[in-house]
TrEMBL record:
Substrate binds at Q80, H81. Gene3D superfamilies: 3.30.420.40. Its EC number is 2.7.1.17. Pfam families: FGGY_C, FGGY_N. The record marks D6 as: Important for activity. It comes from the Bacteria. Residues 261-441 form the Carbohydrate kinase FGGY C-terminal domain. It is an enzyme of class 2 (transferase). Keywords: ATP-binding, Carbohydrate metabolism, Kinase, Nucleotide-binding, Transferase, Xylose metabolism. This is Xylulose kinase. It catalyses: D-xylulose + ATP = D-xylulose 5-phosphate + ADP + H(+). Belongs to the FGGY kinase family. The lineage of its organism: Bacteria, Pseudomonadati, Pseudomonadota, Gammaproteobacteria, Pseudomonadales. The keyword ATP-binding applies.
């Protein structure tokens, strides 16, 4: 039995997997709050993660009716890029600064200039550092919290922090490390010089966790944690990884040929590659995978959070919101919402705010507003898919995961807007499933050095053909029109900030 945990932005999900037959025996979840502040601050208390870990795990074990002693391994997936700082005694110094925090966008620009711009960043790191990546948070912390910065003895990503809490060991693996901005994705090594540029004292280099390969164990549970969680003290903790890397494993995206799209707090799109094929497109982040290869990825910052903002404004529950989306026609009778509430990573508009266009007395309806936000966030992913395809990535189908994938209408919107068939995997909590699968792989490798991840994925991952939808020609044409309008509006609203490849296309 293996436990997969996914510490996402809005909550933690736990899943108990019988890896011998691929059956998911139990699941649990618990939510987190965001600390929002001025200038795009988005932080979270790490105590919420550990508390949510414990309650989601208890719920999964209870649903399965399984004793925690039966758990042989745990794999932790976590929201990428967040910064957790610990002092020498292992105490958390301040709330975790998250992937969606744009407060350090100016620091990111300064670091990008130091790297020699997008080209310099690509050459040196294999990725273009973007607002939200860990590295700019370090520069921000040095300026804003110098006393805490001086006490920093460990710099960890969210899932590294949870692994440290579980085992007492500070480790990192390549996939999540590649989203820090101080890691070379080609050579899979830390890039020390950017850390030295931030701080000459050597403090940051000394605070780096040890890198391990994705099939290696971080260690075993600390006895007090095993007791607290009611888990087997001999259970191993696998390397874990970023939620997208674990989502790739949990959708079987460990060989070239598939594209996974996640509709979570963020919108992501990624495909496995067995070589570090660095995309010349700055928006495509060629991260490492947590299965031995690479994972070119696109991430939009505003997705279900933007839906939630409109839902809250109109005081709607999820069901009523989805019903209103279904009532409005494609294109929302001319209403377009550019959903960049907290700046945006793809398209690269870190300083943008959201805007609403095309309102008239006739079309200003709740249904059009609800649909306009769903269309607006999905257009960002359409732009991302075009960039991924321009980088040479092909796939005949999109595998859809994340909370939003549960909505059949959104699945059809994705199929029509991307002009590509869509299908969900049987288990929508793909990142938690990926964690459990990786733990099973790591456990198997301890007995047999050749144990294959592919064999476990083929037992545990399947597509749910009942969710399969194909694009409808008439809708594809209607979205194409609406997407042209979206591009024109981005260009006219954000002017010179607009990425050159997002300028309007001729009709
Ligand atoms: N049926 C649905 N239709 C639309 N959105 C949904 C549906 N079910 C869940 N969601 C949204 O999915 C989001 C959570 O997705 P999830 O992938 O768990 O996020 P994260 O991992 O970022 O915490 C929530 O904002 C929720 O409103
Ligand atoms: O920043 C990225 C990817 O680069 C995000 O995808 C985060 O990893 C957050 O994920 P969710 O909470 O939306 O799952």
């Amino acid at each position: 039995m293996f436990l997969g945990i996914d510490c996402g932005t809005q909550g933690t999900k736990a899943l108990l997997l019988d890896a011998s037959n691929g059956r998911v025996l139990g699941q649990g979840s618990a939510s987190h709050d965001l600390i929002s502040g001025p200038n795009g601050r988005r932080e979270q208390d790490t105590e919420q993660w550990t508390a949510a870990f414990a309650s989601a795990t208890a719920a999964a074990l209870a649903e399965a009716g399984v004793d925690g002693d039966a758990v042989l391994g745990i794999g932790v997936s976590g929201q990428q890029h967040g910064l957790v700082t610990l002092d020498a005694a292992g105490r958390v110094l301040r709330p975790a600064k998250l992937w969606c925090d744009t407060e350090s966008a100016a620091e990111n620009q300064r670091l990008l200039d130091w790297l020699g711009g997008e080209q310099g960043s690509l050459e040196r790191l294999g990725i273009v550092i973007a607002p939200g990546y860990t590295v700019s948070k370090l520069l921000w912390m040095k300026a804003r919290h110098p006393a805490l910065f001086e006490q920093t003895a460990h710099i960890l990503l969210p899932h590294d922090y949870l692994n440290h809490w579980l085992t007492g060991r500070a480790c990192a693996e390549y996939g999540d490390a590649s989203g820090t901005g101080y890691f070379n994705v080609r050579t899979r090594e830390w890039d020390l010089s950017i850390l030295r540029h931030i701080d000459l004292s050597g403090r940051l280099e000394a605070a780096l966790p040890e890198l391990i390969a994705p099939d290696k164990a971080v260690g075993r549970l600390r006895p007090e944690i095993a007791g607290q969680l009611g888990l087997n003290p001999d259970a191993i903790v696998s390397s874990g990884g970023g939620d997208n890397m674990m989502g790739a494993i949990g959708t079987g995206n460990i060989r070239p040929g598939a594209i996974t799209m996640s509709l979570g707090t963020s919108g992501t799109l990624y495909a496995y590659s067995d070589t570090p094929r660095i995309s010349p497109q700055p928006a495509v982040a060629t991260f490492c995978s947590s299965s031995g290869g690479w994972l070119p990825l696109i991430c939009t910052m505003n997705l279900t959070n933007a839906n939630a903002a409109i839902r809250d404004l109109l005081q709607l529950d999820l069901e009523s919101f989805n019903a209103l989306v279904a009532q409005a026609p494609i294109g929302c009778e001319g209403v377009t919402l550019l959903p960049f509430l907290n700046g945006e990573r793809v398209p690269a508009l870190p300083q943008a705010s959201a805007s609403l266009h095309g309102l008239t007395t006739e079309n200003l309806t709740r249904a059009n507003l609800c649909r306009a936000v769903v269309e607006g966030v999905t257009f960002g992913l359409r732009y991302g898919l075009d960039l991924l395809r321009e980088s040479g990535i092909r796939s005949e189908r999109i595998q859809l995961i994340g909370g939003g994938a549960k909505n059949p209408l959104w699945r059809q919107i994705v199929a029509d807007m991307m002009e590509t068939p869509v299908v969900c995997t049987t288990h929508s909590e793909a990142a938690a499933l990926g964690g459990a699968i990786q733990a099973a792989w790591c456990h198997a490798r301890q007995q047999d050095a050749d144990a294959s991840l592919e064999a476990i994925c083929s037992r545990c991952v399947s597509l749910d053909e009942r969710t399969a939808v194909a694009p409808v020609a008439e809708s594809v044409r209607a979205y194409d029109q609406a997407y042209r309008r979206y591009r024109q509006l981005v260009a006219s609203t954000y002017g010179q900030q607009t990425p050159p490849d997002l300028t309007p296309v001729a009709s």
